Amino acid sequence: MAEAHQAVAFQFTVTPDGIDLQLCHEALRQIYLSGLHSWKKRFIRFKNGVMTGVYPGSPAGFMVVVVSYMSYNKYKQLDPSLGLIAKLVGGVLVGTGLWVTIIMIMRNVLKSLLSWHGWMHARHGSVSWSTRLWMLLVKVFSGRKPMLYSFQNSLPRLPVPSVKDTCRRYLESVRALMDDEQYERMKGLTKDFEKNLGPKLQWYLKLKSWWASNYVSDWWEEYIYLRGRGPIMVNSNYYAMDFLYVFPTSIQAARAGNAIHAIMLYRRKLDRAQIKPRMFNTTRIPGLETAQYERMFNTSRVPGVDTDILQHMNESKHIAVFHKGRFFKVWMFYDGRLLLPREIEQQMERILADKSEPLPGEENLAALTAGDRTPWARARETYFSRGKNKQSLDAIEKAAFFVTLDDTEQRFEPDNPVKSLDSYAKSLLHGKCYDRWFDKSFNLIVFKNGTMGLNAEHSWADAPIIGHLWEHVLSMDPVKLGYTEDGHCCGEPHPNLPGPQRLQWDIPAECQDTIQSSLTLARTLADDVDCHIFPFDDFGKGLIKKCRTSPDAFIQIALQLAHYRDKGKFCLTYEASMTRLFREGRTETVRSCTMETCAFVRSMIRDETVRLNSTEKHQNMYRLAMTGQGIDRHLFCLYVVSKYLGEDSPFLKEVLSEPWRLSTSQTPLQQVELFDLVRHPEYVSSGGGFGPVADDGYGVSYIIVGENLINFHISSKHSSPETDSHRFGANIKQAMLDILDLFQLEKKAM
C-alpha cells in the first residue's frame, strides 16, 4: 500500500492561557484539493449538459445576441414589444424560479429516500409495506425516464462511521484469527487509538466528507492505484473471458469486426447517456452511482516518477491495434459515420496481411507498461516526448481503446478442459508481456481462432463497469450482428476505405535496454502465476436457493472450508463489495472469515452435526459494507490523514499491513434481460479473474451463470510452497458438495 506524505496540520493544545492553535497547511490543503476536484467535476458535468442542450448554439452566442439586442434598443430608445416584454420576462423569470425550486425539492426528497436502506433487511422473496411505500415514492420522484447520469446529484454522500463502531467491528473481524494473547494486545492498541488519536483523525475526515463528494474515492484511486510503483500487469489489471462453449466464428478478423463495432455502439450510447441506469436487484429501482462510466473510453494511465495520472480525452475517433510486433492506428469513422462490422473486418484483414517487420525496439515496446512504473515514466519523458515517437505514443494513449490481434489460439477444449482454460486465463491476464498495452482503460484481445477476451486497467473503475460493456458486446455479437455462413461479418467490404496507418518509431539502443529490463521483470512475474479455471456444474444457484440461503454467502462459506482443508488454518479474507449506493462510491471490504464461519468449518472438519447459520452473519456484514458501515475504507482514510498530520499510529500501521491471503470477488451478471439463460445458458460470459494479492495467498473470482453453473477463477504463485491453484480448486468443489449435503434436499423432497 502506498503511504501518504507525512505532514502536520491543525494541532490543538490546551494551555493555562487557553487553546493554542497551530496552523500547518498540508492536511487541510489535501482536504481542500479533494473538495475542489469534486466541485470541478460537478461543474464540468453541468457545463457539458448545458452545452449539449443548446447545441449548435452556445451560451456565449446567447449573451452576444441578448446584449446586442438590448444595446440597440437602448440606443434607438425603442420598445418593439409595446410593453409585452416586461410582462413576458417577468413571467419567464417567475416560472423559471418555480421550476428550479420544484426540481431542487424533488432532488432533495429523492436524496433522502435513497439514504434509506431498510429494504436490504427484508427476507428474500418478501417485501414489507414500508419497502413498498418507499419504492412507490422513489418511482414518483425519479421522473419518468431517467438517463444514465440522472441520479448523480440525488445520491447521498458516503457516511463516515464512528471510530468506536469501526474499532468494535474490526476487533470482531480478527478475533477468530488471533489467539488470546495476540487478541488482548490488539485490543489494547485499538482502545488506545479509539481514545487518543482516533477522534483527532476523525475530525479531519468529517471535514472532508462535508466538503468532497466522497471521502474515500479520490484517496483510494491515488494511493492504492496510481502511486503504486510496481507492475500493474497481474498485480492490478484483471481479465474477462468470452463464451465458454460457444464459438461464433473461427475467423479472427470477423470476430474483431463485430466486437469492435459493438463496443463503439456502446460508446455512442454512453456519450448520449442512453444506457439505462443500474437497478437495485431487490427493488428494480434505478439509483446506482454511474460516474465511473465517464472514463471507460479514450482513457490511458500515464506513468509518472512518483505517481501516475489518468489521461482522458473527450473524443477519440480511432483505435490502436497491435499485431506481431507492429502498432497500427485505425480510424473508426468514414464519411461521417461509424464503420460497419464488415468494414472493420476489412481493416483487420489488412493488418493481418501486412508482412512488414517490426521496427527496432517496436516489438517489445509495450513491455514498458508491464514493468515497474518509474523506469517507464523516465523512458517516456526521455524518448517519447517529441517527434515521431510522441506522435505514435499519442495515437495509442488517445485511442478509444486498444486491440490485440493475438497470434496464438485459445479456447475451451472438452478433451483437455483444465490445460486449455488455464492457458486461456494466463493469456488474458498477461499474454507475452509485450502484446497488451496495460495502461489503456481496456484491451480487446482477439485470438487467432476467433476466441476473444478483455484485459482492463483497474484505477479508473471497478470490474462491474467493464462487465456491463462486455455483456453488451456478447449479447450483440452472435445474435444481433451475426455472421454469414462462411463466418464473415454481415455486409460488404468498402471499395474506397483508406487502410490502417502503421505507427512509426525511432527507439534508441538505451531505450531498448529499458524495454528489455521491463520485459525480463514482467516475464518473471507472469511465469510465477498459477491460474486454474473450472466450471462447477454439479449444481448452481437454483439448488442453493432451495436451501433458503444466499448463493454468495453459500460460496463464501465453501471457500472458507476449502481454504482450511487446503492450508490447515484460517486467514484474513477479502470479499469485494460495492458502495455505489452513494455518490462516487467504489468498493468496500467484507471480512468473510468470521467467528461463526470458523465454528462451522471446525464442526465440518470434526464431522459433527452442524447448522449453517453463518450465512446470516455474512449477509449482515455485506449489508453494512454496502451502506457505508464497512471497516477497511474508513481505517484506510484515517491512516492517510495520520500521514498528513505526521502522526504515527501503531494500530493503523498494523491493521493496514495485514496481508489478505484469500482475496475473493463475485462477477455479477447485470443485464439478465440481454440473455435467454433458460434456453441458452451458454450465451453468457464465463466470467473473469485477477492475480493473487499475497505472495502466499489465493485470488478467487466466481460468476453465477444461470441456475446450474458457477465458474471459478483461481490464481496463486508457483513460487509459494503453501499454494496450489489446482489443489485449491479441488477443495472448493468438494466443499460445495459437502455443504449441500447438510441440507439433505433429497430427503425433504420425499
UniProtKB/TrEMBL annotation:
Gene Ontology molecular function terms on file: carnitine O-palmitoyltransferase activity
Catalyzed chemical reaction(s): (R)-carnitine + hexadecanoyl-CoA = O-hexadecanoyl-(R)-carnitine + CoA
Domain Carnitine O-palmitoyltransferase N-terminal: 1-47
Pathway of action: Lipid metabolism; fatty acid beta-oxidation
Top class in the EC scheme: transferase
Protein topology in the membrane: Multi-pass membrane protein
Keyword annotations from UniProtKB, A to Z: Acyltransferase, Fatty acid metabolism, Lipid metabolism, Membrane, Mitochondrion, Transferase, Transmembrane, Transmembrane helix, Transport
Choline/carnitine acyltransferase domain residues: 158-734
GO cellular component, one term: mitochondrial outer membrane
Gene3D superfamilies: 6.10.250.1760, Chloramphenicol acetyltransferase-like domain (3.30.559.10), Choline/Carnitine o-acyltransferase, domain 2 (3.30.559.70)
Transmembrane regions: 50-72, 84-106
Catalytic site positions: 458
InterPro entries per UniProt: Carn_acyl_trans, CAT-like_dom_sf, Cho/carn_acyl_trans, Cho/carn_acyl_trans_2, CPT_N
Keyword Mitochondrion (UniProt): yes
A Pfam match: CPT_N
Localization annotation: Mitochondrion outer membrane
EC number: 2.3.1.21
GO biological process, one term: fatty acid beta-oxidation
PANTHER family xref list: CARNITINE O-ACYLTRANSFERASE, CARNITINE O-PALMITOYLTRANSFERASE 1, BRAIN ISOFORM
Sequence similarity: Belongs to the carnitine/choline acetyltransferase family.
UniProt name for this protein: carnitine O-palmitoyltransferase
Phylogenetic placement of the source organism: Eukaryota, Metazoa, Chordata, Craniata, Vertebrata
Protein encoded by which gene: CPT1A
